[in-house]
Amino acid sequence: MEEIQSQPDLYRSSSSSASSPTSRVPSSHFFYVRKPGSLRQPISFEDSPEWEDTPDVDLRMEDEVGGGDSINDATTTPVSPSLSKMNSGSMASPPVPEGGAGVVRKIAGASIAWKDLTVTMKGKRKYSDKVVKSSNGYAFPGTMTVIMGPAKSGKSTLLRALAGRLPPSAKMYGEVFVNGSKSHMPYGSYGFVERETQLIGSLTVREFLYYSALLQLPGFLFQKRSVVEDAIQAMSLSDYANKLIGGHCYMKGLRSGERRRVSIARELVMRPHILFIDEPLYHLDSVSALLMMVTLKKLASMGCTLVFTIYQSSTEVFGLFDRICLLSNGNTLFFGETLACLQHFSNAGFPCPIMQSPSDHFLRAINTDFDRIIAMCKNWQDDNGDFSAVNMDTAVAIRTLEATYKSSADADSVETMILKLTEREGTQLKSKGKAGAATRVAVLTWRSLLVMSREWKYYWLRLILYMILTLSIGTLYSGLGHSLSSVATRVAAVFVFVSFASLLGIAGIPSLLKEIKIYRSEASNQHSGAFVFLLGQFLGSIPFLFLMSISSSLVFYFMVGLRDDFSLLMYFVLNFFMCLLVNEGLMLSIACIWRDVYWSTLTLISVHVIMMLAAGHFRIRNALPKPVWTYPFAYIAFHTYSIEGLLENEYLGEVFAVGEVRSISGYQAIQGNYQISPDTNSKWRNMLVLLAMAFGYRLLVYVLLRFGLNKNVSDRLLLSHKKNNSSR
């Protein structure tokens, strides 16, 4: 970063250096106005530089990766009539800093080209289903190709189409070539970074990347450590390698810029040939954005092919791009070199004003949202007169730019390059292999144990709540004795303990939702699967759930004064442990359905209240109304089986004296308070039912994660609500 700051002269805007006359005095504001008497250039700028037509130049691409993934040797072609100033210094780029002391290995890039690419998606657009329309372009190894445009212009859709990650509702037409062939990119040959990625805050940067490498790569551990170190060096994260991503106690975590680079480094452990990034500058300030792009420029210089989307950039960042694909409403307004894009706008009648960022200029011309601002300003006045000097319809600018591009030499050069790239097939990309299922389960289990032990909101908070609840119940029901008169109170104590402990488990909903988000982020790039995620999460949670069950059970058992028998105590602990397992599965299934804290919490509270009512304490199960309450609530409420098993464990085999000569069994004593079975093996059947319910809920979670619910229900409700409001 010091090298960047030490050369401020290299960061001057192209429009304010060689491209604009020095004698020109800028006006007080730069708005779109019509030049009087201009017909062929209906829209122009005041105080704008003039561009000169320049002869054709040749662009030669060399294969820098030595032996692998060439660009089909189709490297000499006329490109653009406006690139003679490419090396004139008018758009100087900052020098790329070195990656530190370590030497990062080269990456074998791959060329990608797309021809007549059209993507349709029903309901995505108001007037047309076409999100991307007949787009052409290409990207070379060692270069950065940016897809730029206003919101809802089709940037992310085009990026996903190139990476083969379109949703099932989308249909793609056209052709995508990788190294000259139409074959699908195999696993490990490319990386895709979402706009918003979920990181694990309780891990350090090195730990997070190492676990990601273990999930992605086959091979030995030392090999994975080397690729992790390479990724850290490539993304300039050496100073943060041993720092927790989310911070701890009073220590701050990584800032948004470093977090974004960590998410990119996670994909680099596979050493992909092509890297797709959706909005790498999302939520970054100007300094972080520049550092991010300089780092990506360094990554591209290693041989990787970079294709990413961007909404807006500063002049310094714009100078780092190699090629730009400009979109508006799905239409390609330009594809080519960055400086050629400035020439294209000048030819179309929209030259970039001095002291204005090129990306701001492009978006100002093609963003239809500015029309509403113009309409708001029509009646406003400023010191210089009419503030609403902007009288341009952006639709006119879009049509003009599109028509100018289609008839320009830039469009012809793109078609020529695509033809040369696809005339013969190059090196086929090969899959780099995956880690085995057993390895992934072991890695996820160990990572879950580490994260749960460090993050107090996972289980430590619930353990504290359980101990507070158990101490409260224990002191409330202490000193009951073992007389016949204490049976009803003892039944109430067991009911309160099981029901309220299950209800307090809702405190784990935020942690489960975070785990689901991490799974979705990893599963989208095939780093994980539904089965290995569930098994790893299940195995990782067992020690903490057992710790909560044994600590709470011991306190409750001895404070309330249940029967003094070790085997009965162990059954009590196992029964409550199974109850916690079932409750965990229920919370996980509800969280998978809603994927929202508010709706998940509300649903779980409602479900637990209904289960408590049907558990047989407030009214014996035989007396419950058959429809609804007995079938199905009483049979699906896990409280029922847990409480019944605990009471059978306590009272079967017990004898109570009635007077001096008569006695009754524990089964007879409890019949008026709770319905249990007289069979001594019934408590083990209840345990098996709880175990089956624990696996049943996780099977439901597997189905939800594996086969359905690409969108959570709350998002669907919100979308339908917006549609209803728009129809009104």
Folded structure, characterized:
- Helix 4 (221-234) packs across helix 5 (256-268) and helix 17 (530-560) crosses helix 18.
- With 728 residues, the chain is α/β, with parallel strands linked by helices.
- The protein is built from 24 helices and 19 strands.
- It comes from Arabidopsis arenosa (Sand rock-cress).
- Residues 112-354 form the ABC transporter domain.
Quick tags:
alpha/beta
- By helix and strand content, what is the structural category? alpha/beta
Largest pleated sheet:
6 strands, mixed
- What is the subunit arrangement here? single chain
What share of the residues lie within helices? Answer: 40-55%
- What is the β-strand count? 19
Shape: elongated
Low-pLDDT residue spans: 1-102, 383-391, 709-728
End-to-end CA span? 53 Å
Counted by DSSP, the helix tally is 24
Q: Approximately how much beta-strand content do the residues carry?
A: 5-15%
* Whole-angstrom Rg: 33 Å
Average of per-residue pLDDT values: 81
Order of strands across the main sheet: 9-10-11-7-12-13
Fold topology:
Blueprint: H1 2-5, E1 32-33, E2 44-45, E3 58-59, E4 77-78, E5 112-121, E6 130-139, E7 144-148, H2 155-163, E8 170-178, E9 190-193, H3 205-216, H4 221-234, H5 256-268, E10 274-277, H6 286-301, E11 305-310, H7 315-318, E12 323-328, E13 331-337, H8 338-347, H9 358-366, H10 370-377, E14 381-382, E15 385-386, H11 394-406, H12 409-422, H13 437-454, H14 460-476, H15 487-504, H16 509-524, H17 530-560, H18 566-594, H19 597-613, E16 627-628, E17 631-632, H20 633-636, H21 638-651, E18 655-658, E19 662-665, H22 666-670, H23 682-707, H24 713-727
Parallel strand pairs: 7-11, 7-12, 9-10, 10-11, 16-17
Antiparallel strand pairs: 1-2, 3-4, 5-6, 5-8, 12-13, 14-15, 18-19
Helix pairs in contact: 3-4, 3-13, 4-5, 5-6, 13-17, 14-15, 14-17, 15-21, 16-18, 17-18, 18-19, 18-21, 18-23, 21-23
Biased composition (Polar residues): 72-91
Region (Disordered): 1-97
Protein name: ABC transporter domain-containing protein
